[in-house]
């Protein structure tokens, strides 16, 4: 029997003082850390996929190939945010993750990220192919399925800006 997995994963994060600029806003560069840390925990907790253990046993791991990030609203230290992530699409050696940082009280989207990961053989330093087991998991959770669609980050951001916001 095929196991059912959630496609959109969610967790909370508290914005720490040390990650903020002198104005108390989350530093632009630190957004990526919050997304990557959340995704790592979400994969382990929801899909039983420990990316570091996988790297140790297979000698293969994902590296960040690119990031696109849009800042829609400010977030300040000691605020709690919801971080939602999903796999948009996958190929034999690439993954595209979308992350959204959301105000848990209003549902307003604070920021959006697309991160493309490439699977590599760490020992050889070359691109690697996803295993059949990984491909099966990806096929059950990818929002858009296999293959890179002809879509633009800016269009996705525009779509999310138009999404209704919950009223407190």
Walkthrough of the structure:
With 168 residues, the chain is α+β, with helices and mostly antiparallel strands. Helix content is 27%, strand content 32%. The chain contains four helices and six strands. The protein has helices at 30-47, 51-58, 132-141, 153-161; strands at residues 8-14, 60-71, 80-90, 94-102, 109-121, 126-127. Strands 1, 2, 3, 4, 5 and 6 form a six-stranded antiparallel β-sheet that branches. Strand 3 (80-90) and strand 4 (94-102) form a beta hairpin. The longest helix has 18 residues, at 30-47. 21% of the residues are buried. The mean pLDDT is 94.
What does the secondary structure layout of this molecule look like, with pairings?
Blueprint: E1 8-14, H1 30-47, H2 51-58, E2 60-71, E3 80-90, E4 94-102, E5 109-121, E6 126-127, H3 132-141, H4 153-161
Antiparallel strand pairs: 1-3, 2-5, 3-4, 4-5, 5-6
Helix content: 25-40%
Helices and strands, in order, run as EHHEEEEEHH
Structural class based on helices, strands and sheet pairing: alpha+beta
* Overall 3D shape: globular
Report the uncertain regions: none
First-last Cα distance: 42 Å
What's the pLDDT, averaged over the residues?
A: 94
Strand content: 25-35%
Number of strands: 6
How large, in whole angstroms, is the Cα Rg?
17 Å
Largest sheet, in brief, is: 6 strands, antiparallel
Number of helices: 4
Observed structural traits:
globular, 168 residues, alpha+beta, 6 strands
